[in-house]
Structures are given as structure tokens and as C-alpha cells.
Design goal:
Residues 111-143 are annotated as: Disordered. The protein contains 7 helices and 4 strands. It is mainly α. The longest helix has 43 residues, at 133-175. The two termini are 57 Å apart.
């Protein structure tokens, strides 16, 4: 079965979208043609803007997973919308450079956004009696707490790793000490220096831990 693609200009499905755009819509600008094909396919690389925190990210899909409590369907829909929005921005920039353009996809979508600023296009509206509506409203509020929790978790892991490393180095200090020396004394100046430096760093980490209020 052949895969069809929806034309964003006439909303009809075609097997060969690029040929349709050339023959039916008479698109001669190669860059305009490429961007409209990307709008339909969604195969666009580069940075995308997060609709929740307005950050430009290379892996927006991973950002949704770790920092926003979204379902799989919501992540897929919002990722598609972010890609389409990026293509519309590129089309608007191309139009501003005054090349010959026949399509007006970026202008049409901009007008729709002005008419319905609270309802993003290509994202289904949430019914008024939908029980999931209160959850959707609190998603943006939990973004900051999730980010803070992730940072605290990483700091805690670093502290545990450093403490374990300090214990291993102290054990190595006694294991490497020659038998003719008193137990606990080593002739390795480098190990002493590393251990002293690690002790200072561990104290600094513990002090930082108490100031960020991990618990």
C-alpha cells in the first residue's frame, strides 16, 4: 500500500506531493517547495521551540519526557506542531527576503493564530467537561518543580559518587603502603596530594548541599 501525504495548501492526499505542488500549485521557488514538503512530512532537523518554557532545543522530544508531564499522544502532537511552527517561521523569513512565492501557508496560519490565539492549530480542543482539563492546566505549573527535583537528584548522586571515591582512595592508600612503613603511612606524595584535594572538594560539596536545601 502506497503512503499518501496531505497537501497543506489544498488539504488533499497525494502519493507524490512534490509533483502535485509543481503541477497543481505551480511552485517554482525550490526553497519554498522544499519547506512546504517539510511541513507535511515533519522531517526537519535543527532547534525547535518548546511551547511550555520557550526554550530552543535540539531534542525537544527528550525535553518533553524529562521536564514536562505529558502523555505519549500529547508529546507526539506538540512535537509535530513545533516542527510545523519552525517551517512557518522559515517560510516567513523567506517571504521577507522578497523572492517570488506563490503559496501563502505562513500567512494563513498566522491569521488563524490571531483569530484564535488561545487555541493552537492542529491540536484538538479540550472539551469543557473533560475530566483531564484540570490536569492539563497544571502541567505548566509542575515544570519548574520537576526541573528543580532533577537538579537536586543529580547533586545527591554526585555527592554519593564523591564519597564512595574518597573511601576507595583511602583504602588504596593503606593497600599501597610498603610493609616496612608504619600502617597508614605511604611514600606516595601524589596520592597524599590527591587525597587532600579530594577532601577539600568533598567539604565544599557538602557545604553546597546544605545551602540548596535538598530535603
Amino acid at each position: 500500500m502506497r503512503v499518501t501525504t496531505t497537501c497543506p495548501l489544498c488539504q488533499k492526499d497525494y502519493i507524490h506531493l512534490q509533483q502535485h505542488l509543481k503541477k497543481s500549485h505551480h511552485l517554482a521557488n525550490h526553497e519554498e517547495l522544499r519547506l512546504i514538503v517539510l511541513y507535511s512530512s515533519g522531517r526537519i532537523n535543527g532547534r525547535l521551540t518548546c511551547p511550555h518554557c520557550a526554550k530552543d532545543l535540539v531534542r525537544l522530544d527528550k525535553h518533553f519526557v524529562f521536564f514536562h508531564s505529558l502523555s505519549a499522544l500529547d508529546r507526539q502532537a506538540q512535537l509535530k506542531r513545533a516542527k510545523q511552527q519552525r517551517v512557518l517561521e522559515l517560510l516567513a523569513a523567506l517571504r521577507a527576503s522578497h523572492p517570488p512565492m506563490l503559496s501563502s501557508l505562513d500567512v494563513q496560519m498566522s491569521n488563524k493564530a490571531e483569530e484564535h490565539p488561545d487555541v493552537p492549530h492542529n491540536v484538538p480542543e479540550t472539551p469543557a467537561n473533560d475530566p483531564a482539563a484540570p490536569v492539563a492546566k497544571t502541567r505548566s505549573r509542575t515544570a519548574t518543580s520537576l526541573s528543580s527535583g532533577m537538579k537536586k537528584y543529580r547533586i545527591t548522586r554526585k555527592i554519593a559518587d564523591i564519597a564512595a571515591l574518597s573511601g576507595r582512595i583511602r583504602a588504596m592508600k593503606y593497600e599501597w603502603a610498603p610493609s616496612r612503613f608504619v600502617c597508614g603511612v605511604t611514600n606516595s606524595t601524589a596520592i597524599k596530594h590527591k587525597l587532600k584535594h579530594l577532601d577539600h572538594f568533598l567539604k565544599w560539596i557538602l557545604k553546597t548541599r546544605s545551602t540548596v536545601h535538598l530535603y
